[in-house]
Amino acid sequence: MDFQTILNNFCEMLRYEADNPMIFSSGLFWTLFVIFIPVYALLKKRMWQMIAFVAAFSLYFYYKSSGLFFFLLIGTSLIDWLLSRLIVSVRSGGLKKLCVWASVVNSLGILGYFKYANFFLWNWNAMVEGNFQPLDIILPVGISFYTFQSISYIVDVYKGRVAPTQTWLEYLFFLSFFPALVAGPIVRADYFIPQIRENRSATTQETYIGLWLIITGVIKKAIIADYIAQYNDLIFQTPTGYSGFESLMGVIGYTMQIYCDFSGYSDMAIGIAMIMGFTLMKNFDFPYKSKNLTEFWRRWHISLSTWLRDYVYIPLGGNRKGTFRTYLNNFLTMLIGGLWHGAAWKFVFWGAMHGAGLAVHKACRPWLDRLPDRYWIKALAWTLTMIYVSLLWVFFRADSWTDSWLIIQNIFTNFSLDYIVPFIKARYVWLVMMTFIIAVHAIPQRWHDRMLDLFVKAPWPVKLFGFIVVVQLVIEFMSENVAPFIYFQF
User: Fold this and answer.
1) Distance separating alpha carbons of residues 451 and 40, to the nearest angstrom
2) Distance in angstroms (rounded) separating the CA atoms of residues 357 and 384
3) What's CA 480's distance to the chain center, in Å?
């Protein structure tokens, strides 16, 4: 093979492929990141050159993830930055509010077109009994995430929580920061922009912690989530094709899959950012340890939960306008959260049921707080919470509203313990991985802290050996194609 052929193949690999977007668990990303990081280190002390380099890499990363939609990201960032500068330069309160609304309407308008146009048109046509043909709209990857970042920036500038960036390039860096661009954590302006200005380098300890997070993220996503998904997908693709017991295992499997997939991505994102000297907020805190829904949403997708609290729940009135309004505000916030996840009634139902569950828990708190602090009480609370959360994940994963109910009905009407032994024999590796992730949730937090501490203090050959073992496991268990992250669709 001559040099020209090699060069052509390399250039072809660097082009956008709609059916093969670049993600953190792909070999191409890590190849490019190994090239990126030493250049980044050389430019770190030259702040503006570093900002330009990272912004350019982030835009290329988004191009490889979503094609020419990176121009949409550039346009959104430019409009937001100009409006933010206008907010601080005008004196009229009315004009300031007008700028805020112009930015919010623009961001939500773009999101609404790409994500919800077909949903609303389909429902309108269903009401008027029209002949609806879906619009040919491709959803840009990660648009929901950077739209929320855009809104938080404008609102924070208006409220004086953060000063607007002096240059558009600095704001583009914030909005397009590639570790968090396509699937979070959702980055808040008042938390992240000061870090850009500080331009701090990572300490040796932070670099090792970042490496640990990357390794654990790869284990969660590329080993566990991608492997157990192979069985889970069979159940959800054929809702009535398996026994109730097998369907139940698929539902439990997806409950663990979505956690490993999404928290694995978040771990890698936080780890990459930490190696670069930036701190992203923790996005998961062992959510399946929760003993009620309120606790679950304090532990699950924390960046979204806190965003919804600060920019939806509190502006609606929070808990300041009486008991009924508190429950209603909780319900409406989760309803919006459900719709944020997807343009389908099953997502609306998912959000509504979580909102109703949160309201019921808050209403029962005075009675629940009087229960004795016994082990069996905690076990019962945890069991009820996990059943509720797991059953609602069915609506999140199933292809349609009808499929969701078919799977749940199949569990309760076609259940037999006779399938246990054949299932164990056929799916023992799946069971081992499921047992592992459940055990990781069960062990005390201090054990996790101790393992992290041991890794950080270990000599580099031990770290290298651990990394090689993880890579070998990924190769051993990986499927034919690199599986995309679940939250890419949102």
Assistant:
1) 29
2) 11
3) 24
How far is it, in rounded angstroms, from Cα 468 to Cα 329?
Answer: 49
Contact criterion met (CB below 8 Å) for 77 and 175: yes
Asked if pLDDT for residue 482 goes beyond 60, the answer is no
pLDDT at 10: 57
In whole angstroms, what is the distance from residue 233 CA to residue 251 CA?
10
Q: Are the C-beta atoms of 221 and 264 separated by less than 8 Å?
A: yes
The C-alpha atoms of residue 180 and residue 182 are separated, in whole angstroms, by 6
Alpha carbons within 13 A on the beta-carbon side of 434? 18
Cite the DSSP H helix spans in 112-188: 117-128, 143-158, 168-176
Spot the catalytic one: 341, 354, 441, 448.
Answer: 341
Contact residues for 458 (Cβ-Cβ < 8 A; gap 6+): none
CA distances to 123, 261, 401, 405 from 148, in Å: 25, 21, 27, 32
Residues 6+ apart with CB under 8 A from 29: 22, 23, 61
User: Tokens 């771990």, residue?
Assistant: 267
| Nearest CA among 175, 182, 215, 217 for reference residue 196 | 175
Mean pLDDT of 330-353: 89
CB 397 within 8 A of CB 228: no
Q: Using a cut of 0.85, tell me whether the model's pTM lies above it.
A: yes
The neighbour count for residue 15, using CB atoms within 10 Å, is: 9
Question: Does 341 qualify as catalytic in the annotation?
Answer: yes
Amino acid letter, 167: T
**Rounded to an integer, what distance in angstroms lies between the CA atom of residue 172 and that of residue 104?**
17
Question: CA dist 141 to 15, 104, 113, 115, Å?
Answer: 16, 19, 14, 11
